[in-house]
Amino acid sequence: MKKLMAIVMGLAMTAVTLAGCGSPAPAGQAQESAPAVQTADQAAETDTQAAETDKTVYHIGICQLVQHEALDAATQGFQDKLTELLGDQVDFDLQNASGDAATCATIANQFVAEDVDLILANATASLQSAAAATSEIPILGTSITDYATALEIDNWTGVTGMNISGTSDLAPLEEQAAMLNELFPDAKTVGLLYCSAEPNSAYQADVVQTALEGLGYTCNVYTFADSNDVASVTTTASSECDVLYIPTDNTAASSTEIINNICQPAGIPIIAGEEGICKGCGVATLSISYYDIGQQAGQMAYEILVNGADVSAMPIEFAPTVTKKYNEANCTALGISVPDDYVVIE
């Protein structure tokens, strides 16, 4: 009987022990603890961290040929639009080539080596360098007057068919010629002043020359190779002409003080192809907004980066409006009155 009772008691104690300890882990394996339960705040924090980890940041290289008012405005418009659309999901690497085409090439090659998501090429030399550097990375141009001229494309259709699109700063050239005629109907000789190294300047000057000659003017062409020649060439032009026309030209835009200091004392008015040049040395312009075409390029970049738009099929876009503007100080100094539909440049 005592032996039977001892067995029963032993079995009872074993059952209690097993119930309290649970099943033992296999040899060499640690026993798992019960999973922790996340609070609502902890779960929300985890979701936020995961979203931040998954967030795409687009890296964009910007090559701007030179610093002046028009190109600065285009770059700012581009950055503002993409920042508005993407917030902190966009990162800009802004590089300025200080007017040197070789530096543009170096910058473009650097962007390709860094495998940026998109290149903004601000001005013709920047676009040409970017096009030479890559046929894969999407390129958007801005402040480009004529893409067919810049990229040497025949049979232009409005799209490049390449990894390139963008916005143009071309204002209606025939209307610029008509503006000159409106303000200076009695002038005889018009000088076309621009940089020979800028093919888009030559394109504009050719179109305006044809229009002016159709209106009865004699046109003379004066070109400078770079900023070192601006003063001497401008001096010659101002001594031989009644009025000067300067197209959208980056070298001229960077040298407006030099040009103004020669032409204003000589009493020679200048019709300019864009507002920045007019503000520095001109009397009137039929101008676009460079900030606006920068914003258009920013919207195009968003469509490429986020919505997968094919850059090769995107038509070149133009400024939505043009405005007749005048430089009040220069007009006063030269005794020129403008019609009421002209807007003063601030």
Your description of this structure?
With 346 residues, the chain is of the alpha/beta class. It folds into two domains: 56-169 and 289-315, Rossmann fold, CATH 3.40.50.2300; 173-287 and 323-344, 3-Layer(aba) Sandwich (Rossmann fold). Helices cover 47% and strands 18% of the residues. It contains 14 helices and 13 strands. The chain has helices at residues 2-21, 40-54, 69-86, 101-113, 124-133, 147-151, 173-183, 199-214, 230-240, 250-253, 256-266, 275-281, 290-305, 328-334, and strands at 58-64, 90-96, 118-122, 139-144, 164-168, 189-195, 218-224, 243-246, 270-272, 284-287, 317-318, 323-326, 343-344. Strands 7-6-8-9-10-12-13 form a seven-stranded mixed β-sheet, sandwiched between helices. A six-stranded parallel β-sheet has the order 2-1-3-4-5-11, sandwiched between helices. Strand 6 (189-195), helix 8 (199-214) and strand 7 form a beta-alpha-beta unit. Helix 4 packs across helix 5 (124-133). It is elongated. 43% of the residues are buried. Residues 1-36 and 46-53 have low confidence and may be disordered.
Outline:
Helices cover 47% and strands 18% of the residues. The chain has 346 residues and is an alpha/beta fold.
Radius of gyration: 34 Å
The sequence of SSEs as H and E is HHEHEHEHEHEHEHEHEHHEHEHEEHE
Q: What fraction, in percent, of the residue positions are helical?
A: 40-55%
Number of domains: 2
β-strand amount: 15-25%
